[in-house]
């Protein structure tokens, strides 16, 4: 009675929207399931692509989980976590982005009935964490090392990993062609961690098969002035000078104010300008370089000057390309032409300007340090080439990972089935509720082979039963994407680097535990309007936003 008399305690500001308890956990799980449903159909070699168009009219066709998740612009706070793990998977290992989202959502889906029945999320979380760790341990045990093989063997092994990644993409039809190209490119750059050493240049037109790999650098011909056509377009063993200065006549007499007392002095001012540029050009020529590249403009005077002396030049080369030329040819970018010594000049075996489709390309091949490679991609529509680039990026990352960690596991759901079986066996030894939770975790792992079947139009129940039976005696069997039956994935070279699976299981477990542990969301309406204010009046918005942000956090902590 007395408690009823007490005034109501008002904790949150008026208008604050809260929801809490079991219902909140369940609603978060539902949101995550909805997100997973949108990318579900893209998994595997028979997966479908998504076409996403934004309000600016940009159209993207993609099969890549991370790309789709990023473009979807998800607003649900809990479901955003799935976007984050897809992104982190993309940057950590580069592949398996759909897998990680599906796994996380499936873990949650399996947990949902328990939460609804009143199981405390922390019991679930504890079991999931243990199960996740055991699963990762098991993947590590089962992984097969490719260390200690000869280069040729290693190459073909890596090509198989790349082919598995590419098989689920738009360019899957030419996977062997691209896989060997990717492996060559990655091996070319060696142990260097900089991804941008592998350039991908897109040239619309032609067919996929017209794509080629340059063992060195290639970039599109830059803007050029009259006289350019007289320059030689092919050199053997040329010296290359890389600059970051302008080689252009600066008509300062038009920009600057000059006071002259004697009309004769005027000529000397004009002459001075010409002398400066001729001096610069002369020094470039004297350095012995046959190719001059600059990040800044090379004007018509310089172009003519070089043409007369059989030197090739290109101005306005992008920073990235210039750096790659520097890395490949062993040259150093100069900011002055004084004192150009031989050591700062780069060199390569062959330089050539070639026609590729409608574009002309400057190609430097046979570079001494060999630490760059460029893939020139050909194909029909723009969207197609862009998706091809994204797919190649996945494959490049995978080959690099495989090269670094050098362990692989069978794909096509084989490893997932094996882990699932292992966890089920372990669950039987557990007394108490935890047995159910570990079992659910094991069951959730089967989502990968099941989805591969669904996407290919196979009878998932039938295939999964066969797989379970095979795996009872321990096997590398996975879904056979060609016949709708089962096959030894390992023997058929459907391989994935072990890190893809390890990272995916880890991230998915973490994400699902995180989402299970949230039982309340507080939406502070003021913080939303603060953003509006911020847009309108910077000062007011900033002050108000900071205040409210602090207040909001305090409240949630209570
Ligand atoms: P993700 O974004 O997770 O990499 P993908 O669409 O690339 O998703 O699909 C990857 C899945 O497809 C992996 O589980 C892989 O084992 C499987 N897979 C790839 N190639 C084959 C194949 N030839 N046969 C069966 N499964 C395959
Ligand atoms: Mg993939």
From TrEMBL:
Official protein name in the record: T-complex protein 1 subunit eta
Region (Disordered): 526-558
Family as reported in the entry's similarity comment: Belongs to the TCP-1 chaperonin family.
Alphabetical UniProt keywords: ATP-binding, Chaperone, Cytoplasm, Nucleotide-binding
Cellular component annotations (GO), alphabetically ordered: chaperonin-containing T-complex
Role played: Molecular chaperone; assists the folding of proteins upon ATP hydrolysis. Known to play a role, in vitro, in the folding of actin and tubulin.
Quaternary structure annotation from Swiss-Prot or TrEMBL: Heterooligomeric complex that forms two stacked rings.
Cell compartment(s), UniProt: Cytoplasm
Biased composition (Gly residues): 540-549
Pfam assignment, any one: Cpn60_TCP1
Molecular functions (GO terms): ATP binding; ATP hydrolysis activity; ATP-dependent protein folding chaperone; unfolded protein binding
Signal peptide: none
Highest taxon above the source species: Eukaryota
Matches recorded under InterPro entries: Chap_CCT_eta, Chaperone_TCP-1, Chaperonin_TCP-1_CS, Cpn60/GroEL/TCP-1, GroEL-like_apical_dom_sf, GROEL-like_equatorial_sf, TCP-1-like_intermed_sf, TCP-1_chaperonin
């Amino acid at each position: 009675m007395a408690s009823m008399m007490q005034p109501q305690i008002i904790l949150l500001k008026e208008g604050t929207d809260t929801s809490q308890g079991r219902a909140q956990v369940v609603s978060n799980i539902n949101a995550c399931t909805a997100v997973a449903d949108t990318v579900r159909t893209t998994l595997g070699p028979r997966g479908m692509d998504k076409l996403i168009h934004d309000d600016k009219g940009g159209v993207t066709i993609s099969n890549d989980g991370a790309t789709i998740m990023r473009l979807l612009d998800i607003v649900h706070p809990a479901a955003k976590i799935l976007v984050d793990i897809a992104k982190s998977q993309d940057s950590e290992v580069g592949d398996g982005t759909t897998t990680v989202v599906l796994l996380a959502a499936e873990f949650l889906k399996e947990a949902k009935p328990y939460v609804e029945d009143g199981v405390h999320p922390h019991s679930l979380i504890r079991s999931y964490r243990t199960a996740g760790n055991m699963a990762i341990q098991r993947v590590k045990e089962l992984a097969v090392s490719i260390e200690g093989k000869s280069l040729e063997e290693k190459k073909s092994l890596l090509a198989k990993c790349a082919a598995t990644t590419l098989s689920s993409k738009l360019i899957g039809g030419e996977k062997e062609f691209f896989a060997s190209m990717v492996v060559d490119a990655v091996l070319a750059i060696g142990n260097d961690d900089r991804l941008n050493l592998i350039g991908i240049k897109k040239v619309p037109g032609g067919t996929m098969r017209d794509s080629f790999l340059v063992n060195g650098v290639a970039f599109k011909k830059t803007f050029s002035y009259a006289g350019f056509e007289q320059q030689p377009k092919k050199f053997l063993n040329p010296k290359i000078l890389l600059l970051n200065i302008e080689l252009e006549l600066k008509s300062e007499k038009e920009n600057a104010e000059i006071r002259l007392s004697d009309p004769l002095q005027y000529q000397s001012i004009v002459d001075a300008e010409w002398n400066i540029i001729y001096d610069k050009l002369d020094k470039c020529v004297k350095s012995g370089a046959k190719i001059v590249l600059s990040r800044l403009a090379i004007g018509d005077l310089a172009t003519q000057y070089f043409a007369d002396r059989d030197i090739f030049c290109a101005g306005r080369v992008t920073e990235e390309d210039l750096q790659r030329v520097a890395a490949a040819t062993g040259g150093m970018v100069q900011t002055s032409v004084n004192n150009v010594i031989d050591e700062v000049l780069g060199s390569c075996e062959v330089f050539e300007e070639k026609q590729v489709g409608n574009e002309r390309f400057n190609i430097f091949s046979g570079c001494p340090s060999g630490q760059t490679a460029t893939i020139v991609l050909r194909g029909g529509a723009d969207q197609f080439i862009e998706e091809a680039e994204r797919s190649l990026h996945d494959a490049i990352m995978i080959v690099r990972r495989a090269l670094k960690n050098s362990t692989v596991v069978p794909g096509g759901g084989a490893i997932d089935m094996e882990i699932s079986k292992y966890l089920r066996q372990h669950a039987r030894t557990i007394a108490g509720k935890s047995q159910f939770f570990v079992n659910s975790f094991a069951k959730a792992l089967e989502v990968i082979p099941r989805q591969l079947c669904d996407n290919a139009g196979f009878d998932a129940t039938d295939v999964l039963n066969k797989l379970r039976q095979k795996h009872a005696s321990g096997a590398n069997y996975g879904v056979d994407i060609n016949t709708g039956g089962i096959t030894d994935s390992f023997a058929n070279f459907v391989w994935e680097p072990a890190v893809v699976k390890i990272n995916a299981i880890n991230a998915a477990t973490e994400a699902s535990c995180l989402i299970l542990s949230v039982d309340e969301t507080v939406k502070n309406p003021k913080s939303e309007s603060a953003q509006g204010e911020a847009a309108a009046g910077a000062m007011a918005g900033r002050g108000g936003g900071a205040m409210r942000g602090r207040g909001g956090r305090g409240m949630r902590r209570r």
